[in-house]
Amino acid sequence: MTRFDRTRGAALLTALFVLLALTIIGMSAAQTALNAEKSARIERDRHLAFQGAEAGLVDAERDIEGGADPASARAARFAAGSALGFVDGCGAGPAGPNLGLCAYVPAAPAWQLAELADAATAYGTFTGAVLPAGAGALPARLPRYVIELMPLVSAGEDAGQTNGNLYRITAIGFGARDSTHVVLQAFYRKVAPNAASLQ
């Protein structure tokens, strides 16, 4: 074997190592790009679910303020000092006036006991609001919420006085995938009309 043949063999071996290194670098770059795209998709889905949950909170506030029909049986549930329809475990039924209304239980908050994804009030049920959902880049499902009646006693008042109601709203929003969801809570105080004029 001549010296020239050994040099050609070493050049071939060097070229193979360089090709292997370039292949590894290329595969690593492709994997990084795929992971970044997947991460961006998950984050976008989470933002969509967050926006849905916020929309659910706003819809619940409209529901408390009378919804689509201020003279309805549902609106009567939110009259000052009323606890009508607020039951342990939350009201059920397809769209009855007690749907998603929960009594305050100190030991176990309603939002922990209620099945938010299925048994809660769907967005627009009592307000008539419309939110597109179910296809493409839209949320997989409409947001849902439960409303829990909380005790409200202001400083200097006894427990018998009421000048409004305090509610804890828990809403769940969904991303483009049904498995992505965000849960948000807010407190909402509905002031009685006569109390509002005194303040």
UniProtKB/TrEMBL annotation:
The organism's superkingdom is given as Bacteria
Query: Which InterPro entries does this one have?
Result: PilX/PilW_C, PilX_N_dom
Domain named Type 4 fimbrial biogenesis protein PilX N-terminal: which ranges? 8-57
Upper lineage is: Bacteria, Pseudomonadati, Pseudomonadota, Betaproteobacteria, Burkholderiales
Q: Where is the PilX/PilW C-terminal domain?
A: 130-190
Q: What is this protein called?
A: Pilus assembly protein
Query: Which region is the signal sequence?
Result: none
